[in-house]
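User: I'm curious whether this sequence folds into something compact or stays loose and floppy. Could you predict its structure so I can see for myself?
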Amino acid sequence: MGIRSLRPNGYKNKTYARENDPTKFKKWREGKTGIPFIDAHMRQLNRTGFMSNRGRVNCASYFVHDLKIDWTWGAAYFESKPIDYDVSSNWMNWHVQAFEICYTDPVNQSNKYKAQDFIRHWIPELKTANNLEVLIPWEHQFKGYPKPIEIYPKWSRAINLIKKIKPKG
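Assistant: Here's the prediction. I'll summarize afterward.
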């Protein structure tokens, strides 16, 4: 029977739409989704073994609700990366993100938390980007940085707010 909280439908046997695209999974793992806030966190994790709680929440939300990949794939990947790995925390955090917590918009979050310097640090392809460009690089030209897997309509409000940023710095 197994531990119910580790099953794809969780301990409440809930479902959500899943596509489980291996190409999207690979891009997410490598920090090459084209979404700077996600990519910076994944690159930080892959290089250092550390990711903030804010990063964990956003990367999991994007993974589950935008990429539509089975949450257990992300939880399994995180078994091998964080230096502070804990079985219970990891699997329950992913489970809760998949079934219990509201969606977090990674474009809005990058602006809300003023993540420009963090992004430039972890994504050298964007090191010359100003504070506007670094948040929405798909609207500008940056050699070597991938175009987003997809720009979701639910991000339009955040993108429009970001476009109002004065492009200094």
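Summary: Residues 50 and 84 are 8 Å apart (CA to CA). The chain is about 45% helix and 0% strand.
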